[in-house]
Every structure is written in C-alpha cells, then in structure tokens.
Amino acid sequence: MVQHPLVAALVFFLMSKFVQSEIGQQLVPENMRTWVPLIAAVLVTSLWARVQGGKADEAVNKLVGKPCPDFNFTVNGEKKTLKGLIEEKKKPVLIDMYRNFCPACGPAADEIDRLAGDSKYKGQAEFLLLNLGPEKDVEEFKKKRNLPGNATHGAIEMNKSVASDFGLMYIPHKVLVDKNGTVVNNFSFGKPLEASLDELLANGGVRKIEEKKTDAVKGAEEEKEEEKEEEKEEDTKASDKKKD
Length: 244
Description:
Blueprint: H1 4-20, H2 22-27, H3 35-61, E1 72-75, E2 78-81, H4 82-89, E3 93-98, H5 105-117, E4 126-131, H6 136-145, E5 152-155, H7 160-166, E6 173-177, E7 183-187, H8 193-202, H9 215-243
Parallel strand pairs: 3-4, 4-5
Antiparallel strand pairs: 1-2, 3-6, 6-7
Helix pairs in contact: 1-3
C-alpha cells in the first residue's frame, strides 16, 4: 500500500517540475508558483486518504459476522492454526497484527499485553500478538517494548491471502473472534477494544446477533402505531361529546 506521505511527496515533486516548465510558467502566476505544488499535494493527499479509508472500511466490514479465515502462525518454533486454537481453547480470541517498523504498533501491543494480564480476562479469552514478518522479529519487538509476555507472541508470514482475507490495509490490525470462530470486529483503529471484549464476554463469548427488521415488518409496526393514534383521537372526540 502506498502511504500518504509518499503520495504527497510525489505530487509535490511533479507539480514543482510542472510550474518550472515553459507551459507551467505561462499558466501559473509567478507569485503562486511556490504555493501550487503545496496546495496540490494537500488536496490530492486528502482525496487519497478518503478513498483508501472508504475501501478499508468496506473490506473490513465484509468479514464481520462470518467465520474467521484460518491461517498458520508460529509460536516459539511451533506451528499452529487459528482454527486449532479456537477449537482447543473454546474461548474468544483477540488478534493484533503488527510489524516492528510501525510507530503505532508499539502502543497497540502494549494495550493488548495489558488486557491479557488483566485478572478479569484470565481464563476468559486468548490474546495473540502476531508479527507480520519473520519469527526473529517477534523477540526483537518484545524486548524493545519490554513486554511482560501476558499475550501469546507469534509470527504470521505476510502474504496476499492474509491481506485480502482480512482487508488489511493499515497496521496495527486487530480482529476479535468469538468462541465459535465468528468475526465480531475486524478493524485497524478507532475502536474501543476493552468495551468490545467486555460486551462479547457478557454474551457468553458468542457474537450478539442484532435483529434486522425487514421493510414489511417495519411497515406493519408503523400501521399499528397509526391505528393506535386514530383510536386515541376517536376516544378523545367521544369524551368531548359526553362533556357537551
């Protein structure tokens, strides 16, 4: 994925070249030649962020409510699968996918490890911190962040399948799976982890299915409300006549 700063730098470079060209000097006033590349970079970057953000939201939301895609990961040299872990533990799983070079991944990993060490989650849920790189990066990251190791630390080799399955466009990327293997939340940022986990555990570790009313049901309910209002009006009129 092309990062926003690279897009901005590329647009700025190209527009700087353009305003210095013969055509650019004819079209762009001299007092605006310094500002045009900067303005273009800001506008294009803003548009790029909106488009990419929309794509990311659409991709991650498609997985919610569906069986979580299975994948292989390694913990201390031992090969495991997500499906196998869920079947063995029969508990919800909170997954955090990260890379060592990512600035935002450190604080996110700190939070996952903190939650994993919280007494109220002991024996209630599994916490996975999975590096999207080689296994050697796991210990390096763990030492750098001085993580106590409450969560399970492992490595999942980054590939197109993982990226497409989870709509992975940004890191850190988190996935909350219920004890039946159904995706509860699939997100990159901006979601309250603890609240989502608490709600899931309060529902017995199973994703709560929100009842979606069909148009027919909604229409019938609206008709009933209208009938009640009409009855009230008739009762009021009848009461007024009696008083007269």
